[in-house]
């Protein structure tokens, strides 16, 4: 294996009050440096669980995760997480939120301020630097979350349905922006979504999950040229075939 | 960045307007509505003394009470200062103990298990009921009064701080852990600010409790302060000084509460527009 992120036979069982839940079984995944990988699957198939394990926030019950050649034991300095509900601190201004990860990493204040300004500029947030998160729209909040994740120059971005709560138009804008950032920074991106079109638009490779227990049911390379056109024949054909890959799950499980 | 421009044009003015409205309403004449019941009370009191519902020895007229403020201003000031100082000292010590302890108990499950029952038991004991013990241990003087105020303020501060920490969104702690923040940074930059609104609630209750306690304690355990002054005024049949004492106790209570609220609004500025404000 030569991946930057490697999952070796990862399994996870939650012990909850209502009994054990096997969320993941036998996950083998290998992300090359600079690769954009989407984890696609229906609700409850363990995508978030896998991302949390890779982020070092949950421990695997089975197997191991290796990042940059080191076996994971808690959050890695090489990765940054972007959370679905943005995870901004309501008592910090946008600037302080963006600078937080650097503060946690022990970066000097002067360097922190300079780097934060740089990222605010890059994400078009300069004018909002001194606002509080609740004064921003959902799309801008998510941008702050992305800016914060990028400040420490991570080798990989771990994103859990970052655009899930946004309207279609804002989501489209942010997808394009994310691709622009990804192309300029050359980071590895691991992106959880249950949107087929979102995955086809973004990914180099799509990893399809199926539930109960969560496992990988298919891996699809996306060879469409970028920038991708959702109206193109190739795009639609791939979406259709992915929809079919997700369908067998629908027969076994109620929708919801 | 078309969407940025769009959002720049649409979102902030709304926020700015909401802020303006919030600021204006704080100083609006509406605020003076609060004086209305007090004025009504004053009028009723004046009428009652004119009609001599009670003999003047029991119920002094408003003018006589006002005169007491002039004649005995030195006494009143000295005793008020003594009471206020005790409350400040007692509540400050309680704050320094309860807030760090509350942050820790709220964060660590084991500490919570360890302390929960004890807290629930001791907070049910009214500080006043501890006056006899405080007297036995510390004699007459400032010490027993301050200890009682400390106890009166400790529990509301502690319980509210714990409550505040519990209310933190789990995601925020995850954000910090994912960023490899030290435990110290998590306490300082996340847990403390997140708990701050609840800490202020605790402080308001604590100061209220402390103020109630000091007046009572002074009637028994100390030879100065507003409680002592009132009790003494009763022994010398100076009903106007009793009422003057009551008025000043109430006024200081109101002032302290307003002060804490103003401080809270300032410290927790970020909450402005986040929580539902009463219209
Ligand atoms: N902390 C937990 N304790 C117990 N069970 C959990 C916990 N977290 C997740 N699960 C269970 O693990 C399974 C996978 O959950 P997970 O959140 O990873 O799914 P997901 O693919 O991210 O779903 P969604 O698309 O809805 O976010 C679910 O059955 C869920 O109930
Ligand atoms: Mg999820």
What is the compact description of this entry?
The complex is a heterodimer of chains A (256) and B (279). Chain A is of the alpha/beta class and 256 residues long.
Strand content of chain A: 25-35%
User: What are the bound molecules?
Assistant: adenosine-5'-triphosphate, magnesium ion
Structure annotation, total helices of chain B: 11
Annotation field: number of helices of chain A: 7
The total tally of domains of chain B equals 2
Order of helix and strand elements from N to C terminus of chain B: HHHHHHHHHHH
Major β-sheet annotation of chain A = 6 strands, mixed
Protein model, in words:
The complex is a heterodimer of chains A (256) and B (279). Chain A has helices spanning 47-54, 94-104, 109-122, 138-150, 168-185, 196-202, 233-252, and strands at residues 5-16, 19-31, 36-40, 62-67, 70-71, 79-82, 156-160, 188-193, 205-210, 215-221. With 256 residues, chain A is α/β, with parallel strands linked by helices. Chain A has a domain at 5-78 and 154-250: Rossmann fold, CATH 3.40.50.300. In chain A, strand 4 (62-67) and strand 5 form a beta hairpin. In chain A, helix 2 crosses helix 3 (109-122), helix 2 (94-104) packs parallel to helix 4 (138-150) and helix 6 (196-202) crosses helix 7. The radius of gyration of chain A is 18 Å and the shape is globular. In chain A, 45% of the residues are buried. Residues 252-256 of chain A have low confidence and may be disordered. Chain B is mainly alpha-helical. Chain B folds into two domains: 1-54; 61-271, MetI-like fold (Orthogonal Bundle), CATH 1.10.3720. Helix content of chain B is 79%, strand content 0%. Chain B contains eleven helices and no strands. Chain B starts with a helix and ends in a 12-residue tail after the last helix. Mean pLDDT of chain B is 87; it is low at 1-14. The interface between A and B is medium-sized, with 37 and 33 residues. Bound molecules: adenosine-5'-triphosphate and magnesium ion.
